[in-house]
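pinning this so it doesn't scroll away 📌
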Amino acid sequence: MTAPRTGPEDEITAVNQVCLVGRLSRPPEQRVLPSGDEMWTFRVVVDRGPGGRSRQTVDALECAAWTARARRSVRSWSEGDVVEVAGSLRRRFFRASGAVGSRVEVEMTSGRIIRRAASG
């Protein structure tokens, strides 16, 4: 993890960087929004590791690929693949059934497959 950088006069520069390594819990899905924008969504399951206060052993984190490069990468991924995803946390607002909703997700800037899922 990168430490916050200091700027002029020791001001703290905010950093929003995420790096996940985990397993895809389902195949990525392509979505075309009403605006015509295309995106791919997927979920990465990451082990929490020891020492937490919860009995929860994993976190399932929603991710989105918006750029052409990120979408090309995600297109070939499959359920069960172990992947590495780099990006930033984003809060996205949307309308659904006349109401406004929001969600926090990882906006992927780059990613790669570490290990393909075992085919069965």
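📌 and the second one:
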Amino acid sequence: MSLIYKQESYKIIGKCFDAHNNLGAGFLEIVYKDALEYEFKKSNIPFEREKEYTVNYDGIILPHKFYADFVIFDKIILEIKAVSEIHPKFIAQAINYLKVSE
């Protein structure tokens, strides 16, 4: 598999493992988000948490927005899931986030 932002992705994945190794399994997503925010700050990794995006539909902005869990290095969206397996709907969700965020 080829990564677009290889160096940045490895840093992010490393912080995800740090958070998971420290907390273990079983917490709600919000706890992992808090831990990752701490890890990113500690490592001086630039990020925005809960970044708001609007959805343009047929030339209008829809009233409901979506919020990316993290946007890191101003170009990578990180969606946090506290689940035991990746469901296809999570992949569809991430692809839609990428479309909306361009």
